Amino acid sequence: MPETTNTTYEQAVDRLMSLADFERGTHSPGHGTFHLQRMTLLLDRLGNPHLSVPTVHIAGTKGKGSTAAMITAILTAQGYKTGLYTSPALHSVVERIRVGLEPIAKADFAALVERIWPDAGRVAENGDHGDVTFFEFITAMAFLHFAQLGADFQVIEVGLGGRLDATNVVSPAVSVITPIMLDHVAILGDTVELIAAEKAGIIKQGVPVVTAPQVPAALDVFIRVAVERGARLVRVGDDVQWQERESGLDGQSFDISGSLDVYKIQTSLIGSFQQENAATAVAAVETLAEGGVAISTRGIVDGLAAVKWPGRLQVLSNQ
């Protein structure tokens, strides 16, 4: 666990908010380009915690958070201590760093800020790339927290793009790409092909990659990059399929036909798109299972039954 600290949670958040934040558009001099050198230097100072926990790395335009939450819920139901890192937060910044689906305690959050702050300052002083950004800092916090807890897995959602995203320093056990659309065109490119090429940056040499159903232009990019890097490509919609049984405002049920079993799923998440996300999550954990990770049919079914992910398609009142 993080050490005790004299820094309050409010002080920790204030410190973080003083950093350059591309999500909020608060840029600082020296941050005109995206790269991984600053992140690599910071993590090296921290002992490279990101390499100590097996990783599921998730990029895409739509459905990243939901898919990440589903994978986390499945691994948790299977009995694994699982870190989850997503962005942005819905109510509070602590929601970005979770174990299972429970946000990090505010005291632990503050302790991590105090622990990392001096190293972030030394990176800025000794490097040629300016100050550590908000996203780089909180990503490092997540990696360090999961390593300190001895997590069995960490599920890491890309912040923006993939190739040069601060999370793209991991050595994943499986990579996942959710559906691609035009997003952040000023940074990633103004065509689906260019954006897909940036997202494909998370595909690693010899590491299996799961892709949700994609428009043809994006799928062509992923097939090409997977072949170039010797990465087995699992295609949801072809290799893993799903079929709806019932749906309503209180949840939905559907069957997922995976490579290892057929799963009868019941979830409180609504919206037909969550069936696709669930199939993508199942494809990811089945890929882990094929690599030797113990994953049961009951773990998959129970995990997807337990997953909660508010603020998507959600019923707030029946009145």
Structural class: alpha/beta
- Secondary-structure element sequence? HHEHEEEHHEEHHEHEEEEHH
Number of helices: 10
Beta strands, count: 11
Spatial strand arrangement across the major sheet: 4-3-2-5-1-6-7-8
Helix coverage percent? 25-40%
Please report which band the strand proportion falls in: under 5%, 5-15%, 15-25%, 25-35%, 35-45% or over 45%.
15-25%
Mean pLDDT: 92
Give the overall silhouette: globular
Oligomer: single chain
| Major sheet details | 8 strands, mixed
What are the low-pLDDT stretches, counting only 5+ consecutive residues below 50? 26-32
Structural Rg: 19 Å
Alpha-carbon distance between the two ends: 44 Å
Secondary-structure topology with pairs:
Layout: H1 9-17, H2 37-45, E1 55-59, H3 64-77, E2 82-85, E3 97-99, E4 102-103, H4 106-126, H5 134-149, E5 153-157, E6 174-177, H6 185-188, H7 192-199, E7 209-211, H8 216-228, E8 233-235, E9 241-248, E10 251-257, E11 262-267, H9 273-290, H10 297-306
Parallel strand pairs: 1-5, 1-6, 2-5, 6-7, 7-8
Antiparallel strand pairs: 2-3, 3-4, 9-10, 10-11
